[in-house]
Amino acid sequence: MQQASPADLPLAGIKVLDLSAYIAGPYGCALLGDMGADVIKVEPPEGDNLRKYPSTLASESRAFLGINRNKRGLCLNLKEAAGHEILLRMVREADVLVHNFRPGVPERLRIDFATLSAVNPRLVYCAMTGYGAVGPMARHAGYDQVLQSMTGMCAAQAKADGPPEVLYGSVVDYYGAALISNSVAAALYRREKTGRGQAIEVSLLGSALAMQSARLVWADGESRHIERDMRSGGITGIHPTRDGHLYLSANTPHFWRAL
Description:
The longest helix is centred in the last third of the chain and has 24 residues, at 171-194. The protein has helices at 24-34, 62-67, 81-93, 105-109, 113-119, 144-150, 153-157, 171-194, 204-210, 253-258; strands spanning 15-18, 38-43, 71-75, 96-99, 124-129, 199-203, 237-241, 244-248. The strands form two sheets. It has a six-stranded parallel beta sheet, with helices on both faces. It starts with 14 loop residues before the first strand and ends with a helix. The chain has 259 residues and is of the alpha/beta class. Helices cover 35% and strands 15% of the residues.
């Protein structure tokens, strides 16, 4: 495959306003930038909290740089009238807006879908939440490893009869980011047919559960403790050797015979 020029990328000409922070929302917008979108990251005066994450770099957060590639930046105080008015002017020319405010906050800031779609009916409005827009935990903040713990991922990752183990690398956040870029792209395709934007929502809870779609299939009367049923009786995994560690995988009869 030849390297495509920026103008040939599928989302060339699409303008995205990224109001999100941390990992899932911003990386979802970075993926849209990878596909050619012009992404403008809008940060509050104190900046994205990811800037403050520990890093061995002298003056930057490695996490922030990796998550927010392909973007231009702008600082706005949306709690002030001037900042809010600037955002509205940007929304008039934008195609997509992504945020990860908790439910209720966009209404207080007057950046909810009803308000912004009145300004730009073609706007695709994506909300990244921890637990969805409704329900008893809707207004709680969501964090990757908290969702791993709540949804059983840590228990499923544990070795036989061992304690739960966290999957490092923010896997729920990154999968949520992929769902954001996928959902936004689908909404833009729908807009081509209808002429109108829409509100879409991705949650970390939904992302964590979707990652376990195979593990959550149970037959009537079946034991719920089947998290390792695709690990070939304990053979599949990392094993110590004299020269280090070796990963073995034999999840089907064909590969088991070969092993």
